[in-house]
Amino acid sequence: MKKALLLVLAVVLTVSLVACSTPAATPSADASTAPSADASVSAEASSDANASTPAASGSKKVAGVVFQEDQFMKLLQLGYKDAAEKAGYEFFPGNTNNDAAKEVEMLNTYIDQGYAGVAIAPISETASVEPLKKAAAAGLAVGLSNSPLDGQDWMTACYSSDNYQLGQMTGEACAKYIEENMDGKAKIGILQFKSLLPEQSGARSQGFIDEVTKLPGVEIVSDQDAWLQDKAITVAGDMLTANPDINLLWGANEGGTIGATMAVKNAGLAGKVVTFGTDASEQTAAMLQDEANILQALTGQDPYTIGQKTMESVLMTVEGKDNPDKGKLVIVPGQLLTREKPDEVTAFVADLKTKMGG
Question: What is the value of pTM for the model shown?
Answer without folding.
Answer: 0.75
